[in-house]
Automatic annotation (TrEMBL):
GO CC field: membrane
Topology within the bilayer: Single-pass membrane protein
The keyword Membrane appears for this protein: yes
Originating organism: Hibiscus trionum (Flower of an hour)
Compartments reported by the entry: Membrane
InterPro entries in the cross-refs: WAK_GUB
Domain of life: Eukaryota
MF terms in GO: polysaccharide binding
Pfam family, one: GUB_WAK_bind
Claim: Membrane is one of the keywords in the record: yes
Name of protein: Wall-associated receptor kinase galacturonan-binding domain-containing protein
Length: 259
């Protein structure tokens, strides 16, 4: 079930207000998960994000581990077996902008190349994302569809081209069958899509093309962590539905040493 949640700082405050003093003191370790931290060029990250190699286990949410935090660049995030760059995070909107790692430096990576999925039920593509499709090594008789153009950067494949917003599955398959290098569909967020359509000559110039938006369900992620440590997750009264992790007694739910 999807939940509508307020800001992280409000959740942080309620955790202290609603828990007994003894529980709050023992639960101090879990509060580390909501202490903001930087990674790469992204600032003020909190749970469910965490740094590999430095965050405690009880802060580690699957699909949100970050690496390359020391570089002054978007950090790496591995989701569903695929590597992405974390471009930005909208904490209050529970969404992030990520870009495919294999297209970060070039739109013409070595084969094999394929479409990607997110692989987790608590993640979803934003409905406002748009599609670009890349076709590699197509027959010489194939011309780019309307709204597309050549990808001259792909020197390893002759006659490679792109198309924007191909929604017709038959058109996609028709072109793909005539392209020995294959085809992929890449999402891009709305603002970047509009800019790229105005500046099509920059298609292959930089880090492709600063990503697409992914929404995450913080309540599902938080409650999954709660359940893992033998607690149960309650919602407070509407309209805010703040998730709370509850367990009788004073044992710390989210500290493995106390289980």
């Amino acid at each position: 079930m999807k939940h509508t949640l307020p800001s992280i700082s409000f959740i942080h405050l309620l955790l202290f207000v609603h828990l007994p003093i003894s529980y709050t003191q023992e639960n101090a370790n879990f509060m580390q998960c909501f202490d903001p931290f930087p990674c790469g060029n992204v600032q003020n990250l909190v749970f469910p994000f965490w740094r590999e190699g430095s965050s405690p286990e009880f802060c580690q949410a699957q699909g949100f581990g970050l690496t390359n935090c020391e570089d002054d660049d978007p950090p790496l995030i591995s989701i569903g077996g695929h590597e992405f760059r974390l471009v930005s995070v909208n904490q209050s909107g529970y969404s992030m902008t990520i870009a495919r790692g294999d297209l970060w430096e070039t739109i013409c990576p070595p084969p094999p190349i394929s479409n990607i999925t997110l692989g987790y039920p608590f993640l979803g593509f934003s409905p406002t994302n748009r599609n670009f499709t890349f076709f590699y090594g197509c027959d010489s008789s194939v011309a780019p569809p309307r709204g597309g153009g050549p990808m001259t950067e792909c020197t390893q494949w002759s006659n490679s081209f792109y198309a924007d917003d191909i929604d017709d599955g038959r058109s996609y398959q028709q072109f793909r069958q005539l392209c020995r290098g294959g085809a992929i569909q890449v999402q891009i967020n709305q603002s970047n899509f509009e800019q790229l359509r105005r500046e099509a000559e920059n298609l292959g110039s930089v880090r492709w093309r600063l990503g697409f938006d992914v929404e995450y369900d913080l309540a599902d992620i938080f409650c999954g962590k709660c359940n893992r440590y033998k607690g149960w997750c309650d919602d407070l009264s509407p309209p805010e539905y703040i998730p709370m992790c509850r367990k009788p007694g004073t044992h710390n739910l989210l500290n493995p040493a106390s289980i």
